[in-house]
Amino acid sequence: MTAAGESFPLTRLSVLAAARSQDGAERARALDTLFGVYWKPVYKYIRLKFSQSPQDTQDLTQGFFAELLERGLLSRFDPAKSRLRTYLRLCVDSFVLNEMKAASRRKRGGKIMQIALDFSAAEDELCTQAINPASIASLESLENFFEKEWIRSLFSSAVDELRGDCEAQAKQKAFQLFEAYDLSEENVSYAELAVSFSLSLTEVNNRLAWARRQFRRIALHRLRALCDSEEEFAREARTLFGISTK
Q: Which of 44, 61, 88, 126 is buried deepest, with most CB atoms within 10 A?
């Protein structure tokens, strides 16, 4: 698996197209991108919808992504019928129900690509979110939860890449400003940031503007890779950023 901050290759191929590539390296990078965005939403969704223990949810999450590869489920996706995340959520439902009916877990060994997932981080996030399972018991609420977790995961990966870019370009202070102002739940003014970081108000404004542009560029790039067509990308960009890509 690639590191969290590595970006998808600069290509117009969607993840689905790249996952079907004859190039093994490109195929692996595509799957890294897909799994990187979707594994946490899948894990949390299984935990809440099916009331599974953390250990069983880990097994089911790993099993689902292994089955995604084994059965070639990505090749069956039809973008004309639904969005990719809707299709994957329905695949999760089918997989988990089948596993629960069988009351056993298939053992997947070295022949299957093992996915390194930080389950403890996902579990910690569930705890800090203080979610009451009863409040999202309805199907509609669970669908909305999965949707929000997908967006959260996409943005989180974009933040990780931005952090890496800032470090590589020796612009750590720009990321620190972005983190303090845009990512923190605390309300802080530009004037307070200027004092804290020993910068002028103009410098704070310029560095924040740069970081925001970079973040949006990264997030849109990752979003584009996850969309199967320009039309889908345009719809998603309008939903997430309220902008037109044309």
A: 61
